[in-house]
Amino acid sequence: MNRKTFCAAAALLLAGTSPMASAQDATPAPQPTAPGIRWQKEVPAIASAEWTGARLADGQPDVSGFWSNTISNHSNFTDPQAGPPGEPSAAAKLPRDQRAPSRVSDPGDGQIPYLPAARALQEDFAKNFPNPVKPRYIEPLARCAPAGVPKSFMWHGYEVRQYPGYVVFLFDSGTRIIRLDGSPHLSPEIKLWNGDSRGHWEGNTLVVDTRNNNGKALFGRYGDFMSENATVAERFIFDADGKRFNYVATFTDPTVYSRPWTATIPARRYTVADKPDGWHFDVKPVNAPGRPLQYEHYERICAENNGPFGGGAVGVPSDGAVIDR
């Protein structure tokens, strides 16, 4: 059991729960390949509806497994495939309609509706990102901080585990637990990198109310952000065959935005039929001879805050010795 598995299980054992396992395919492990990260331009339309797929023992739709976003990493929130500040991608030279759309699905112009002072802060970060002469111009994720909402859904693949009364996300940068028990939110004075989440299922849609954000996690390398006053209404809308979902989140923060706005981030599922690729399906086979094939994510140094950016967290082998002993 690696540290991610232990932490998720320990947190939920406090509530007297145990994980609900899905059936595992016994296919032999494919050999890892590195064909390059493949991104798509389209965001599929997935409507909220009744769930017709498999369910777990407590009635939850079974969406456990490995997932990853399909259009780009967190370099650019509103032009996902154009690259980070000062480092445009090859796709940035293409006409705008030949790249993936903005993650901002409302308003229709694809831009976050900042108040003037908040827009000035975001633009200042973007201008200084390529040459960060002050600590505030270094993205928190680069310093091993949790990615937060919504960036966790754009940075590497992640795993969803389900327990009675909980949905757990195991991200590359930490763990997020969504309680389904109807319990009240934490005190407003408590602020967290991933916020405090309460959810319930409506057919094929996991509906989540997230608040208590600490306002420190940026959305990406252009410095888009929300404050500690924000609330996020999240909808995880799964398709009928359980192979894709759209993360649709509405952000409300009168201290930063002129109006509520909505982001849409598409994701697809990865299974033993897929080959590990070092990004979307960033996994290793579990060392369990004679048992059906299972995968787990790497335990990464940044998830533990064990090393600074540029001084060990970059270039360290994920499954080998850090130094030659």
From TrEMBL:
Superkingdom of this protein's organism: Bacteria
Secretion signal, residue range per the UniProt entry: 1-23
Keywords: Signal
Residue stretches of biased makeup (Polar residues): 67-79
Region span, Disordered: 67-110
Tagged with keyword Signal: yes
Keyword Signal tagged: yes
Name assigned to this protein: Uncharacterized protein
